[in-house]
Amino acid sequence: MPCSCARATSHESLGLWASLNAVPFYEAAGWDRGVERDHETNGETLTVLEMRKQLTDSGA
């Protein structure tokens, strides 16, 4: 649903930060890996990976 809503409003891509254990899930859904970084939350430091999904044909 987020992808179809973003397409309907003319967005070209989506991005998110995924925990490392979630990366295979997003890759299977067509998302591409980006930059890895540390994210601090509730006093804990977690490694996350930027994920991007292209919604439009980049050749257009």
Automatic annotation (TrEMBL):
Residues 36-60 are annotated as: Disordered. Residues 50-60 have a biased composition (Basic and acidic residues). This is N-acetyltransferase domain-containing protein.
